[in-house]
Known about the structure:
By secondary structure, the chain is mostly helical. Helix content is 60%, strand content 0%.
Amino acid sequence: MREELSDPQPGRSLIAQQLAYMMLIQALRLHSADAASAGRGWLSALSDMHMSIAITSVHNDPGYPWTLESLAERVGMSRSVFACASARPSAPRPWSTSPAGACFWLPTA
Length: 109
């Protein structure tokens, strides 16, 4: 990128911008892989299909009065299964501040 910015060629700013996007995406991929293996954080939750749909839904329509029931319905899960899935440390729970502990988890390995 330094070479691209130091050489006054046409399109250098566009190329530098695209290189910066590629670097950002690569950094997010690496972080996501580390977070997913650790099983915590927002990026880890995004790697789970159901949690990704729920988080994306909330972000796409933040004014909607989301509830546990409506999010469970959106992702195609029962309310209780979705509540347990979202109670994992990796998953955000915007509708509840109570500590997770009502669900028992089997090892996934």
